Amino acid sequence: VNTAIVKMHVHSARSRLDAGGSLLKTMDRWLIIAASFFFTTEVFALCALVSPNWITSYDGNGPCSLGLVMTCKERDGVHHMECQRQNNLSPYWTTSLVLIIIGMIGITIVFGVLIVSLWKSRSEAGSVAKWISFFSTFSFCFAALVFPIGFVDDEIGGNPYYLPEQQHIGYAYICFILSILFSVLGHVFINKICFPIQSINFNDTS
Fold it and tell me: Which of 197, 170, 148 is nearest to 72 (CA)?
């Protein structure tokens, strides 16, 4: 009887180890996927930030592109754009710029934590990355909501969330919206990493 009980415990322990190993492999895949999403988030956000094509318009002097850090205009009928640093941001666009920078710093930290967690504790890394990614994504979302309020600026001449007919949303703002989507997907996979860890700890203590 004792031998049968010992064999049963050994078999149970082996099954638990096999299940734990399989779960850890799955978590590694989720971790790599999450890191890939956050890396893509950073690339799209950076491309959007440095691009002047947040708002595109055409006036009597030619096409014009407005961005958060740069402005490009066609001068005197010359068929090339002259770009300069944006020095006259409205308070709304300044707020969006600050929020985007904060979000990018947070996403960079999350990406680094996820890469390090391949060799360190996944539990601690997942918990830290989860909260940083949440606040970074929130910062991005808030920036996306504040930016259209800046359409009231004299240089644009619109209303909050409404552009004049001759002006349009540029590809940079679309890239930024895509970066938000990728950050949300990354956050989802971080949560998938955290919850199995909690279940493993619960099984071990029971």
Answer: 170
